[in-house]
Amino acid sequence: MTSILAKKPLRIIPRLDIKGPNLVKGIHLEGLRVLGQPHDFAKYYYENGADELFFQDVVASLYGRNSMSEIIQKTANEIFIPLTVGGGIRNIEDITKVLRCGADKVALNTAAMGNKDFVRQASEKFGSSTIVVAIEIVQETDGRYLAYTDNGREYTGVDAVEWSEEVVELGAGELVITSVDREGTGGGPDLSLLEKIAERVGVPVIAHGGVGKIDHVTDLFDKTQVDACAIASMLHYNLIHKNKVQRSLSCNEGNVEFLKKNIGFKNIDLIEINEIKSELEKHNFFVRN
Q1: Which is the catalytic residue, given 17, 150, 174, 272?
Q2: In the predicted model, what is the mean pLDDT of the chain?
Q3: What's the mean pLDDT in 157-171?
Q4: 50, 14 contact by CB (below 8 A)
């Protein structure tokens, strides 16, 4: 398929999964390993051309908390691109707190599934452009795509495509679609899933999960109608491999030995955001520099 010039800039969004004070990364949203300090990575991505940042507290819903206030404030004070924050946001008060800390948007998942009216209430109070719904999706053995919650841990039985349409009707202004099956593998995004959703909803769709090579990004924008790509492994491992966040590896918590030995890099391109954008421009896609 020949690339078509986009009418609005396509976005490259680093995704930073947070556990406690640390940036972590796993595969299929599990087996989380500590990579370093979130702020170090976020600042580098901002300077390297990120369009937005996405922070997700990956254990907040499990423990019924949201504890990223300090990280959000520190980031918002130094980084001047949109910041979306998700994880453990259960009510209007939680949204207010996160926005006051400096976030521009909030991502809802578990609480939205448990109380659909929460999406409507939030969009009415804060505006639909502030409310993102994150949908974590697993493809079942019968081919169905089902939505999961709690960072991909909890089965809901809800059809993911139908759920995406429903939350948009309730007022969500944007969707983050995570393929749990592909996440962290570097095997490529689930283009079929993404197109099923993107063609049915009238709001921007952010694709997350599976991107491990630069060709995956160009294919994503070429073959689906998504508006943005959220990337973690390619960007995080690149910084560590090139020692651009050296002090992050001084942390004592978690298993960092695999990073020092470059384990996990073999299936994933190590690349900068500006290199991704340059490649997209070669394919006639419109991106911000």
Answers
A1: 17
A2: 88
A3: 98
A4: yes
Where in the chain does DSSP place strands (E)?
Answer: 11-19, 22-27, 30-36, 53-57, 83-86, 105-108, 131-139, 145-149, 154-159, 174-179, 205-208, 228-231
Q: Catalytic residue at 17?
A: yes
Residue 187, Cβ neighbours under 10 Å: how many?
18
Confidence at residue 65, expressed as pLDDT on a 0 to 100 scale: 54
Domain, as residue range, for 230: 11-282
Confidence band for 4, pLDDT divided at 50, 70 and 90? very low
**Span 182-222, pLDDT tens digits:** 998 999 999 999 999 999 999 999 999 999 999 999 999 99
Buried b (16+ CB within 10 A) or exposed e, 188-224: bbbbebbbbbbeebebbbbbbbbbbbbebbbbbbbeb
Residue 142 lies in a domain: yes
Asked if residue 100 is part of any domain, the answer here is yes
Secondary element (H or E) of residue 235? helix 233-241
Q: What is the CATH number of the domain that holds 157?
A: 3.20.20.70
288 part of a folded domain: no
Tell me, yes or no, whether 71 lies in a domain.
yes
Give dist(CA 15, CA 146) in Å, integer.
Answer: 22
d(C-alpha 137, C-alpha 69), whole Å: 28
Tokens at 141, concatenated: 């053995």
Does residue 86 sit in helix, strand or coil? strand
Total tally of structural domains belonging to the chain: 1
Pull the structure tokens for residue 283: 């394919």
pLDDT at position 111: 94
List, for residues 52-81, the tens digit of each pLDDT value.
999 999 876 544 555 688 899 999 999 999
For tokens 């800390």, the residue is 101
Annotated catalytic residue within 57, 94, 136, 190: 136
Per the annotation, the verdict on 136 as an active-site residue is yes
d(CA 61, CA 72): 18
